[in-house]
Amino acid sequence: MNDNVVNRDGENHLRRRSLLAAAGVLGLTGGAVAVTRGEPARAAAAVTKKITIYAENLPGGLIGYGLTRGGATVPGPILEMYEGDTLEITLVNTTTQRLSIHPHGVDYSTESDGSPFNDSFNAPGETRTYTWRSHEMTTVAGRRFMPGSAGYWHYHDHALGTDHGTGGLAKGLYGALIVRRRGDVLPDKQITVVFNDMLINNRTAPNTPMFEANLGQRVEWIAIGHGSLFHTFHLHAHRWADNRTGMLEGPSDPSLVIDNKDLNPGSAFGFQVLAGEAVGPGAWMYHCHVQSHSDTGMAGIFLVRNADGTMPPGAQEAIDRFQGHQHKAASSAAAATATAPTHVHGGTGS
Amino acid sequence: MNDNVVNRDGENHLRRRSLLAAAGVLGLTGGAVAVTRGEPARAAAAVTKKITIYAENLPGGLIGYGLTRGGATVPGPILEMYEGDTLEITLVNTTTQRLSIHPHGVDYSTESDGSPFNDSFNAPGETRTYTWRSHEMTTVAGRRFMPGSAGYWHYHDHALGTDHGTGGLAKGLYGALIVRRRGDVLPDKQITVVFNDMLINNRTAPNTPMFEANLGQRVEWIAIGHGSLFHTFHLHAHRWADNRTGMLEGPSDPSLVIDNKDLNPGSAFGFQVLAGEAVGPGAWMYHCHVQSHSDTGMAGIFLVRNADGTMPPGAQEAIDRFQGHQHKAASSAAAATATAPTHVHGGTGS
Amino acid sequence: MNDNVVNRDGENHLRRRSLLAAAGVLGLTGGAVAVTRGEPARAAAAVTKKITIYAENLPGGLIGYGLTRGGATVPGPILEMYEGDTLEITLVNTTTQRLSIHPHGVDYSTESDGSPFNDSFNAPGETRTYTWRSHEMTTVAGRRFMPGSAGYWHYHDHALGTDHGTGGLAKGLYGALIVRRRGDVLPDKQITVVFNDMLINNRTAPNTPMFEANLGQRVEWIAIGHGSLFHTFHLHAHRWADNRTGMLEGPSDPSLVIDNKDLNPGSAFGFQVLAGEAVGPGAWMYHCHVQSHSDTGMAGIFLVRNADGTMPPGAQEAIDRFQGHQHKAASSAAAATATAPTHVHGGTGS
């Protein structure tokens, strides 16, 4: 795998353009979401945003989505919209294989389903437009509300290899999709982490992405599951509410607060943390908590730097240990993953 | 498998008598739940309803529950009650094997546990009565409330084959049980979908049930997991709140909104959608999102017709594609399911 | 396995000292949490509590945590604190292997991470102090709240066998950690139940713990998942809200009410039931609802005695059946667990 594709230190994820549909209205300048931390978003009325996405072959047999020709990554770009917005996506298939883009959570007619079942895909070399709409909650006879589109969703191929896109998913055709409710708190930085069979963002330790933030920055995680295995996502020293925003509405919000959550195929969830809140800076692990998975490479680093961006004591040593010593598969764990693809790296035992 | 047992187009599920315990009080006429869409239920005081359920052998080695002699189906009938109601179930075992009926969520004494552990089962040919009660929430020292019985539950055999009913579950002895809170919004149509090892309602694609509704109808899904494998339930182009009703209480309801949810053995959940809301009519897929499971047959069709019941453009073509082309197992996916029973149908590759 | 380690009838779990950080302030007398059932806790300001935990070898190749020398158990002691409290844990490693203690949910700096990655572990024979802090929710720009530490968490080894503690978990180095919000309802009794690969508290049926309570007692369950397999926890005849407390805040609390929940590696949840509420006393089963797991030994008994502590009719007979007849693996279920460690006991078929 090539660092031009997925930067080892994860910076490309954090710097990656987050495509907010209402970006123009918000005055975003095309880079990371530009907000004052903790400030609610001030968005105007619903907008329609037209974008082009390129599906491209990448080194190492991967295929990715990108917002520019030659700019594909694994995972693909984070796409964002507010409830009520529409995204018109022109997907350019630069490969020689059938593929598509299928979203979760948003509204689309059968032509934009992204499934061969509905004859909705790009033939090799074909360009095709998919339209994703969204809506706010609507009342039900004055009693309850049908939910709107807001959520931490995702998009992925649904046509390469099988009618369910199993081949496309294996190669990296996936990314995060966020639909916000107006007024939602916006983050400083964003991270997409995809547990895809025994890989994280199609990498294995110690080459998994290292995500970075400075102490106190509001970091938004979008976690996505793919493939055919079950997983649990765990982040050290941080926690979140298991609800739509990851935050509590107040003292009577009954939501569970967790730091470990099932992350199974087709599911996604998101949350925001203040990097190092109440724990301080340092190199913190995120990993699958299925023991046979973490032992064989499903782990990575969330590096929380000092507030001024300098390295905190001990962090470089932890990173060095991770490079050289971690993730030797325990023989006792191997039995339980006999059916899983093995991605054991050559680290020496600790 | 026989269309008298499980109608291929799923109509028997949608038309099936939903047994609301308070049916007499509500003036229901014995067919589908008769309500004005979106209207809250107006129910009288708690009632006791006595019913007879027949456990019967079915073609293809299946065993089902039914409300009439000769009327067993897989899944069994949807049973419903309001919090406070009681169901007295006389189970007639017409088979030559030990079996039982065990409910989730409701109240029962050890004699109605449905487990050999509590000596609560029907011997071959035996008739036995099980009593299921329910209750409303109760206050806890003025601070919080112990939950009532309301929920999307299920019932199943707990005695055939093993003391946990593994044999009965494999053969089809399961069904949905709904306990409503007074005032809950009632649906127009109801669907039971059971992920049971590698099968959906004990069928595999393309013979999985096709559920039908007209555009705008309020359709209630009850999803149940059984067997020994993990699954995720995904429905295209529709979403729901991950809470008791699938709807939001209002803008401060923190519930996650999802379109993909873990559906593991012994679990059940339910939700209501407005068929085709914000997306229009069409043939929409529901499937397990574990790639090796969808690729080998865990997928089906939710056909949303036009509001007048006619077929929308493209829907028949999609159905035809589903019949002939779908669900060829990808060789890359096969490894991960080596331990799972294989139910690959003979569809040609797409 | 030795009854000094894990008492077969589970009484040691129920009687085990629950270490409430604010115990002195609350006037607890060192035994079970002393509260009037249903009464909210009245706790004073945040406190710092210093304790010593011993990691010790146990019969049968197990290793456990204990609050006294020679007092280690599997699971370890239930540790409790209120939001704002601090626990200073001096861990004495009496074994010849590297090990640690790593908590979920609470606040700790990298030195207390309990991971080799952060050079935070006890060498063989070493004593080391770990500090766990906690905090209340904090407001976010006047709109929402970053969650506090309250939750049903757990702690475990993160260093024995592999850098993720896979060996320590397999041997029993795990326990429950509860962080309460001031005012939370306190229980009469507490139960820790750990699904660890194919074992419950490192035991298999019929030697799994039998937990006991009298009718109407408020019993708090803390369920924890470990290992490399997926599980679902089911309790017969009782249910709980799937939220932070297991209770509802009121009629508009949207929480799901459930009696079956995924219990996968690294996850924990807790809830309180009134023993036998609305169902009466009796021997009730708890078990993994994955059929191949319950059939091969992942089941146990929750014995609800009469309010005066006497045995209810039929309970002893059920216990006797459980000892002799249960959990013969069905051959049909065996295929699905071919990759799992097998822990089949020698019970005769039923």
Please, could you describe this protein's structure?
- By secondary structure, the first copy, chain A, is mainly beta.
- Chain A contains six helices and 22 strands.
- The first copy, chain A, has a five-stranded mixed β-sheet with strand order 1-4-11-10-6, with no helix packed on it. A five-stranded mixed β-sheet of chain A has the order 14-22-21-16-19. The first copy, chain A, has a four-stranded mixed β-sheet with strand order 3-2-5-7, with no helix packed on it.
- The radius of gyration of chain A is 20 Å and the shape is globular.
- In chain A, 65% of the residues are buried.
- Mean pLDDT of chain A is 85; it is low at 1-43 and 326-350.
- Chains A and C meet through strand 17, strand 18, strand 19, strand 21 and helix 4 of A and strand 9 and helix 3 of C.
Entry keywords:
about 350 residues; homotrimer; disordered C terminus; 6 helices; five-stranded mixed sheet; 22 strands; mainly beta; globular; disordered N terminus
The gist of it:
Chain A has about 350 residues and is mainly β.
Set out the fold topology.
Three copies of one chain form a homotrimer.
Chain A: H1 11-15, E1 18-20, H2 23-26, E2 48-57, E3 63-66, E4 78-82, E5 86-93, E6 102-103, E7 127-132, E8 138-140, E9 144-146, E10 151-156, H3 166-171, E11 174-180, E12 189-196, E13 199-200, E14 210-214, E15 218-226, E16 232-235, E17 240-241, E18 257-258, E19 260-262, E20 268-274, E21 282-288, H4 291-295, E22 299-305, H5 315-325, H6 331-334
Parallel strand pairs in A: 1-4, 2-5, 4-11, 12-15, 14-22
Antiparallel strand pairs in A: 2-3, 5-7, 6-10, 8-9, 10-11, 12-13, 15-20, 16-19, 16-21, 17-18, 21-22
Region (Disordered) (chains A, B, C): 327-350
Protein name (chains A, B, C): Multicopper oxidase domain-containing protein
Keywords (chains A, B, C): Copper, Metal-binding, Oxidoreductase
